[in-house]
Every structure is written in structure tokens, then in C-alpha cells.
Design goal:
Length: 406
């Protein structure tokens, strides 16, 4: 988490249970990333307006020259050319061209008669417009929670919160003979910031994954703070307290923290951060998915849990292995009665546990893989839903192979 600190050391040092502590995340991480995403979205909108017609029909002479650079710039060295950068990242090329090489040939043959189009590209795949909206919504929510004024952090007050200082999209395209450094810097800076925001690298995001589904007592011990402090953190992040006895929602503070499990609400700040990571950041650059998977594998190898007595837990894990990791559905449900897990099911297939496992004991043992981001938990009265990521398969296999020890 930076400077050799563990997540726990970082969280305690920054008093992460205080909502005001999240101002750093807002100002240093989210807002700069939002400004980059906003500039890229505006640039892509600018390209859509400029393209879709023959070069000869672009009346603005300066713009026509810039679009020529975008479609053919550096063609003497195609593999390292600015034109290839624009083709791969923004889809700029000759209409009907099936490849970048074809696009160059079209331009060489038809010159200003070429109709410029935008094909599927990196900027489409990362859904830049939706990303800007998600970031704006998250920034607006956190700002409101911690009483941060948008103009003080470089954004305008009115939705969609444009940056106080904007970039003219036209200036991002170089003139003939100019360096494309401004646009290259924006794109590569955006990708780097996305990596900096990812799980295992950004401490705030990593803490969000850690705390999203966790026993109250475990979080209190992790942060070494009072239940009253956790109450403030839970309200800010959107963590709901559930009874591990029957799955009912309870109120904080409580005199029995050992019976409480915290789980994120789908409309919460915490879930918005998780969705930002899983639905958007992961797809921005291959290095982010690789970094995240390496982190999850490392964490999975470090998790040490003892499911005893193994005879009671074995049917649950056998069912998970046979149904969840051998089919297309990556989840199962646990039916609860009188505080015990009575059935494990997936669709119409189910098994009944003899004697049952106490729900509280199961959640206390399973939460480390949930906190690590390898699984997800949903709780409602009478039932628990477990959703697993593919990386969890090896961990489940080790638990079974070692008869409850992992």
C-alpha cells in the first residue's frame, strides 16, 4: 500500500473510519482520473463530428490537415506511426477499410476523396461516455457525504460537473510536422491513472474490497477502533449490518458485535467503487487485469482457514466444486433455519445438510476470500447467496484436498 505499509497499517494511520479521510481519495485519485476521462470523451465526440465525410468536405482547412495527420501521419513507419495509434485507440481510418494497412492504401489511392470513418476501437470498448457518467456520479456522492465543494476540487457545480479548466479537443490533434505529445500524454496518463486506481495498488480501493463483506468484530479488530467508529464508516460506505443468527438487518451500535456481519448495499458508495473497478478499470488496459489477477492469486495463496469439523463442511464444498465450477452458473444458495445452514442449492438441484452448519461459523470462516474479492455474499432473511470468481476454484480445491485446511 505504498512505503512498505500493509493495508492495516495504512488504514489505521489514515483513520480510514472517518469519512473526511476519503477526501484524499476524492482529490488525488478520482478527480484527476475524471478530468482525463472527461477530456477523452470530449475529444471522441469531436472526432465523431469531424469524421463521417470525405476529407475534401471538411471546410476548416486547419482541421482537414489535422484529420489527414490522424489518418496517415507517420505512414513511412506504419508500425510506430501516429496514424496507427489513432486507428487502434480511436478507430480513425478510411471508410470500408478492413484493416489499418487497408486504410493507408485507401488514402494513398484516393487522397482527399477518402471518406473518414470511426471504426470499433479501444475508446468504444472502454465505454468512455458511461465511464464519465459513473465517475461524475461517484464524485458527486462522495463530495456530498464529506461536504466537499466541487469548485474547490477543480470542477464546476452543475451536472455533469465539467472541469473548471477544459481542454479544447481540436488542440489535441497535431498539425503536420508537430509532435502528438499532448494526445499521447493524455491517453497514456489516463491508462496509468486507471492502473493506480486498481485493486492491490490503490489503498482506498483495496480497503473497499476488503471491507465490503466482513464480520463487524473482524473489522473492529483490523482497524482497532470502536463500534461507534465503524457505525460512521458503515453509513458513509453503505455497509448494512446483518445478524449472523438469522440474516435480519439490525442497527449499530450493538452490544453484541460478534453476531454482526457487514454487507454492502447495491446503491452504496462502496458498490459504486467496486463497479467502477470491475466494469470499467479492468478493461482500460491489459496491465490492470493482469495486476488484479496476480494480486488475487497472491492473496488466495495467503489465506489460511480451518473448516472444522470437516465432516460438517465437506458437503458444502463438494457441492460448490461439482456445481459451481463444473457448470456455467457461478453461484449457489444456502438456506438458513434457526441460525443453521440447512440446504445448499443451485436452481432445482439441492442437498440437505445433516445437523447443519452454524451460519455464524461459516461466515466467519469464508469471509477472507470474500474480502479478497474472490467471492461475493448476498444476505436476506432465510437465505445466503454465494457468487464465486473463477480464481476461487483452486482455493476450493485446496480446501477439499486438505480436508478443510487452506
Amino acid at each position: 500500500m505504498g512505503e512498505g505499509k500493509s493495508l492495516r497499517e495504512w488504514a489505521k494511520e489514515n483513520k480510514i473510519w472517518k469519512p473526511e479521510s476519503w477526501r484524499i481519495f476524492l482529490v488525488n485519485d478520482l478527480v484527476p482520473f475524471y478530468k482525463q476521462a472527461y477530456a477523452l470523451d470530449k475529444f471522441y465526440c469531436f472526432l465523431r463530428e469531424a469524421c463521417g465525410r470525405p476529407l475534401a468536405d471538411i471546410e476548416d482547412e486547419e482541421l482537414r490537415k489535422k484529420i489527414k495527420v490522424a489518418i496517415y501521419g507517420g505512414a513511412e513507419n506504419p508500425e510506430t506511426s501516429f496514424a496507427k495509434f489513432m486507428y487502434e485507440n480511436f478507430g480513425v481510418g478510411a471508410e470500408d477499410a478492413s484493416s489499418f494497412e487497408d486504410s493507408l492504401k485507401y488514402f494513398e489511392n484516393f487522397g482527399d476523396g477518402v471518406k473518414v470513418s470511426l471504426e470499433d476501437s479501444w475508446i468504444d470498448r472502454i465505454r468512455i461516455g458511461n465511464l464519465v457518467k459513473r465517475l461524475g456520479d461517484l464524485i458527486g456522492t462522495i463530495s456530498s457525504e464529506i461536504n466537499a465543494k466541487l469548485p474547490e476540487i477543480g470542477l464546476q457545480d452543475s451536472y455533469p460537473y465539467p472541469p473548471a479548466e477544459s481542454i479544447d479537443p481540436k488542440t489535441l490533434l497535431p498539425n503536420p510536422g508537430e509532435s502528438p505529445e499532448k494526445l499521447l500524454s493524455l491517453v497514456y496518463g489516463f491508462k496509468q491513472k486507471a492502473l493506480d486506481l486498481s485493486l492491490g495498488i490503490n489503498p482506498f480501493v483495496t480497503f473497499v474490497f476488503y471491507s465490503r463483506s466482513i464480520p463487524l468484530l473482524a473489522l473492529m479488530e483490523f482497524l482497532q477502533c470502536r463500534v461507534e467508529d465503524i457505525k460512521g464508516l458503515a453509513e458513509f460506505l453503505g455497509l448494512k449490518p446483518y445478524s449472523m443468527l438469522d440474516g435480519s438487518v439490525i442497527a449499530l451500535p450493538t452490544k453484541a458485535p460478534e453476531t454482526v456481519f457487514l454487507l454492502y448495499d447495491y446503491s452504496s458508495v462502496l458498490n459504486k467503487i467496486i463497479e467502477l473497478h470491475n466494469e470499467y478499470l479492468i478493461g482500460i488496459d491489459s496491465s490492470i487485469e493482469k495486476s488484479t489477477n496476480n494480486y488475487l492469486k497472491e492473496i488466495a495463496n495467503q489465506i489460511r482457514v480451518n473448516f472444522e469439523p470437516w465432516g460438517e463442511y465437506k458437503p458444502i464444498f463438494d457441492f460448490i466444486k461439482s456445481r459451481v465450477f463444473s457448470g456455467k452458473i457461478n453461484l449457489c444458495e444456502l438456506e438458513i433455519k434457526n441460525g443453521r445452514i440447512e440446504k445448499v442449492s443451485q436452481g432445482y438441484i439441492s442437498i440437505t445438510l445433516q445437523g447443519g452448519v452454524w451460519l455464524r461459523d461459516f461466515l466467519l470462516k469464508i469471509y477472507p476470500i470474500v474480502s479478497a474479492g474472490l467471492a461475493d455474499v448476498n444476505i436476506w432473511r432465510g437465505s445466503i447467496r454465494l457468487t464465486f470468481k473463477p480464481l476461487t476454484k483452486d482455493w476450493v480445491g485446496r480446501v477439499i484436498e486438505n480436508e478443510g485446511k487452506a
